[in-house]
Amino acid sequence: MRFFSDNAAPVCPQVMEAISRANHVDTAYDGDALSQGLDAAFSALFETEVAVLWVTTGTAANALALAALCPPHGAVVTHREAHIQADECNAPEFFTHGAKLLLADGEGAKLTPAAVTAVLDSVRADVHRAQPAALSITNATEYGLVYTPDEVAALGALCRARGLGFHMDGARFANAIAHLGCHPADVTWRAGVDALSFGFVKNGGMSAEALVFFRPELAAATHYRRKRAGHLLSKGRYLAAQIHALLADGLWIENGRKANGGAARIAAAAGDRLLHPVQANEVFLRLTVGEAAALRAQGFDFYDWGPGEARLVTSWSQPETEIAALAAAISAL
Amino acid sequence: MRFFSDNAAPVCPQVMEAISRANHVDTAYDGDALSQGLDAAFSALFETEVAVLWVTTGTAANALALAALCPPHGAVVTHREAHIQADECNAPEFFTHGAKLLLADGEGAKLTPAAVTAVLDSVRADVHRAQPAALSITNATEYGLVYTPDEVAALGALCRARGLGFHMDGARFANAIAHLGCHPADVTWRAGVDALSFGFVKNGGMSAEALVFFRPELAAATHYRRKRAGHLLSKGRYLAAQIHALLADGLWIENGRKANGGAARIAAAAGDRLLHPVQANEVFLRLTVGEAAALRAQGFDFYDWGPGEARLVTSWSQPETEIAALAAAISAL
Amino acid sequence: MRFFSDNAAPVCPQVMEAISRANHVDTAYDGDALSQGLDAAFSALFETEVAVLWVTTGTAANALALAALCPPHGAVVTHREAHIQADECNAPEFFTHGAKLLLADGEGAKLTPAAVTAVLDSVRADVHRAQPAALSITNATEYGLVYTPDEVAALGALCRARGLGFHMDGARFANAIAHLGCHPADVTWRAGVDALSFGFVKNGGMSAEALVFFRPELAAATHYRRKRAGHLLSKGRYLAAQIHALLADGLWIENGRKANGGAARIAAAAGDRLLHPVQANEVFLRLTVGEAAALRAQGFDFYDWGPGEARLVTSWSQPETEIAALAAAISAL
Amino acid sequence: MRFFSDNAAPVCPQVMEAISRANHVDTAYDGDALSQGLDAAFSALFETEVAVLWVTTGTAANALALAALCPPHGAVVTHREAHIQADECNAPEFFTHGAKLLLADGEGAKLTPAAVTAVLDSVRADVHRAQPAALSITNATEYGLVYTPDEVAALGALCRARGLGFHMDGARFANAIAHLGCHPADVTWRAGVDALSFGFVKNGGMSAEALVFFRPELAAATHYRRKRAGHLLSKGRYLAAQIHALLADGLWIENGRKANGGAARIAAAAGDRLLHPVQANEVFLRLTVGEAAALRAQGFDFYDWGPGEARLVTSWSQPETEIAALAAAISAL
What is the total count of domains within chain C? Predict the structure, then answer.
């Protein structure tokens, strides 16, 4: 029973069917109708004109977004434990050609205007310092917390005031929206976000993520950057198909809701073992070495996060029975 | 009837089945059994120990290979019409961090030791010049010609003599091997090739190419470079599955043979319209504007290559009837 | 007697004196009055508002200029034998983060609108190709030819029509102006040039070149790029002093005239040995191995350019007697 | 009276004389005898075989050193307030092509094995993290503290144990050696340092710093990297001359001693206003806004470091009288 990562989940049936439906002779690269339909699909979803590119990984989406917002001699403010800092092996530095990540602090990998301002104010405005050009936040965060529209809007206002581009890493955007119950626009462009890495792979997709530009003019150069990074697939229609399948009938939110539901049930069983509030699909627990071993002996697979800490991640695909078994096992510890 | 590109072909049934079979909970990234089995599968195929990474595009495979063989202050010798020069929007420059491509000439995008030597000898050995560090050839070439083992070995010997790494872009490697009928080892490592971009997407795959290092020690840093480029997919098992499916029972060669067969039949009909010998799955024809329009009016889709020239590409998937119809239409011009 | 390179010449006395005069406690980096006075000095010289940065090498000036004009996924059209292609060890690729140089041909390293247009027209306007973003020419060229204002203006018009930035490598700008006798503005911004690498080192300076932006808004980011490249010297006033000394009373043109004069005298002696017209301070000659040896035996030092060819370069500093001796020796061959 | 920066100091007379002596026709780039003599001069100084390149800035020396020690997908551990992190506008990221700086803490910008180990241990050994490849320390530090040979050796041992290259930023190396009174070898290669940025500009030079490789094999690629960065000056002999002048008769240490002496005298006057022990030529003081204004009113120029803090820097060139006046003024506050 895998609670290791939502990347371990399979591809959801509707996505597999969409891939099969796309399996005929068609136009190469992104000239096919499915790829060409992404701008309209996301513009409808977000109720504003957006420009969208598919890519195969969140790392690529994030790095391309940052390259569109920050020059090589600039800096991106982000959380010390952000995925772009801690888990992408210098991809932001590669795609931006050497921009620096300036690290801010905050509970549960969440940033506040005060924390960002402190970093900004530490940078003298002269050529010896890489000047901040963008802010990047993750929603839901790496610790499963969710920014509300108001929280994002406060950061968005700061970005406008200080001339920063604003990127949201939405590897678990579906989980965030499922938690918030708000309109996707409210926590993105209406709150000042310029570019969103909209994750689908953790949410039932196979190999497609969307990079959504709420300032569509940023997309033009990004098309070249995507090709140059080897991220323009010749059979791109199979990626676009996955995204359309997940957008259809709100499947992406439904999958996010399922994953969140599992995490909530485990959280309820975990009680004061919780290291962070559980708002999305990640549960961080205090577990002794012995307790961790005991759970593993019962067939539960998960990630040791630090000494005496564990991370459990739920997905859209886990059977109720597995969730229930894990909750029971944790209660019984 | 699409003769535009082999990228327009669908995914072949065995690959779709393999993807379906892989669709269950599994380990993320490339820790799954399918991904972990690639080294062994290719080592068996090539009869030597190799190290292999899957990536999603030939551009990524090529650029990662060049980055492993050439420093930023070095140069890669290649043909003026090589894909890496003409169709990858500076991906080699991006991944190598600014190495220069030095362009050599040759009929049908094919290089000879003499042509490469002429380029090498034009570079003074001082710090003002980017020193050649690698040679890259494409087999089958961008014009559908195939290097024989002896031709590759002659270039390989030159590489050894001049201290160059040797890369082969095998976007249509299957077509080359299908034409040659030789062992894949004979035209690669036995002939001095260090790294091969082994293409599967044009050959019935969906989104998986293999980067094969015949000097396995080159793979270690490339794993980091792949991640850093956003090319490590979290559900990588779906890529590995595609490759295993095409390797099984020689399906890759069978698909290559089918594609070549279609091209040969069209070539036979084209007679002295041919601009290049047809050895793989591409046919370059002299066609007047009127003739091109006439073919298109009959439902044939293809690429205008230059004034009075056209490119037609066949794939494993074209029905016999479409090939026959095109051959007849060309004969009738 | 050195006719090897104008880089072998010493620093001219006025420059040495200016350096000495600058030798007191002052503001660091480029906050001193001398550095701060460069914009005004060049604006006066060019009769338009310009923004200027000092750097230590022509390679740095060229590469910074190209980085200001061309994105990483773009291309710079230049001559096949341009210094930026042949003698800067990938500096343009480094500073532009991987832009490609597209090479055009032309007698004596000189480009025409037709030659540039041919290159531009060879590039399909799609994401698979690096799109041309800039043109770079060298005046005087690497073979000592000089573009006239009309010739530059024709290229400038082409740049405007095709949306290209326009860079002039003026490593020997003084020699060009000395030859033309025109106003420096006529062959630069009035002819459409956006950025000029204005060379002083070959012209009597020690370590200072100027990067002149005729579109001053390009300078802002370049100040960061200069720092980031390690090219912002903490005692920058010693560089600015050199440039002011050479600009004062037209010393730069006078030095250029002296250098050109020497070359003209040698050219007159060389007669039909000349490989190119001699317009600046470089003389390219046909010389047999025996003739070259004979000249060297008489104490003349120069560069073998190719089989049976030699390059001789004059400078502001050569004594009349050395010039006369060389001219006589060539006549006597 | 400038206590703003040691970069504000003039060039010392012996350096000016050396520049004048070098002012004759000579070989270009670094083929001259002065440049060619650097390896021997530094090998003698350090009592081991070293390979040396001149560059014009400490930023260039540092960034080239890091590029020699760390791949683009790697990381450099350094202090949070190190010059390479805080004052070089992403030059390390530019020259290394995107390596990440991992920041450690320590009093007075000084690192300990424990602080470095804590950073190293925070990095999982997988492809998602940039793996540490080098350590960089500054001696004397940015706060004027000096690492002893034993302290450096402890870090050097850690580097060997963890497979890290070891770089020392010696912008104020002379001040460190003047303070320590030890042999320069003891605090560098004998303590495990691989590459040293040996500063001369703050110590009486004009535009020359040395990059010293104690592993001479690192120099070969660096010669190309230097050229590619536009840092190979065509009249490099004027840089080499500066360095030889400062090395001759221990002038560099004598200048360092003078600068340190001034700082010590000011420190003695400052008493418990000192924020850090004064070991080199920098004095960090607690000063109220009013006190700072009072000193400035008396003609003393210095840098506000933070709220209620000031930085004063002494150099080899300050007259005794200015030092005495400042000491008196501080005492009188």
Answer: 2
β-sheet bridge partners, residue B49: none
Distance in angstroms (rounded) separating the CA atoms of residues B124 and C7:
19
Q: What number is the average pLDDT over the span B120-132?
A: 97
What pTM, to 2 d.p., does this model score?
Answer: 0.97
pLDDT score of D6: 86
Q: What number of C-beta contacts closer than 8 Å exist between A and D?
A: 60
Q: Is residue D77 helix, strand or coil?
A: strand
CA proximity to C234, closest of B317, D286, D108, D58: D58
Q: What does DSSP say about strands A131-138 and A165-170: parallel, antiparallel, or unpaired?
A: parallel
Q: Which of D54, D112, D104 is nearest to D84 (CA)?
A: D104
Q: Which of C70, C93, C121, C129 to mutate to test the interface with B (most CBs of B within 10 A)?
A: C93
B268 and B141, same domain (yes or no)? no
Domain co-membership, D271 together with D221: no
Stated as kind and residue range, the H or E segment containing A65 is: helix A58-69
For all residues of chain B together, what is the average pLDDT?
97
What is the average pLDDT across C274-280?
97
The range of the structural domain enclosing residue B310 comes to 252-331
Do B301 and B240 have their domain in common?
Answer: no
- Pairing of the two strands B74-79 and C309-313: unpaired
| Residue among A301, A313, A322, A305 at smallest CA distance from A267 | A313
* CATH number of the domain encompassing residue B237: 3.40.640.10
Asked if residue D121 is part of any domain, the answer here is: yes
In a domain, D192, yes or no: yes
Give the nearest chain B residue to C123 (CA atoms): B86
CA distance B271 to chain C (A): 28
A230 closest CB neighbour out of B19, B24, B57: B57
Q: Say yes or no to pLDDT of C101 above 90.
A: yes
Q: Are residues C102 and C241 in the same domain?
A: yes
Q: B323, B333, B283, B332: which is closest to B1 by C-alpha?
A: B323
User: Do residue A236 and residue A317 come from a single domain?
Assistant: no
Please provide the distance, in angstroms rounded to a whole number, between the alpha carbons at the two ends of chain D.
Answer: 18
Statement to judge: residues B226 and B287 lie in one domain: no
Same domain, A26 and A109: yes
Q: Using a CB-CB distance cutoff of 8 angstroms, which residues of chain B are in contact with residue D73?
A: 221, 224-225, 227-228
pLDDT band at D9, cuts 50/70/90?
Answer: very high
Q: Would you say A283 and A144 are in contact if contact means Cβ atoms under 8 Å apart?
A: yes
Does A125 lie in the same domain as A267? Answer: no
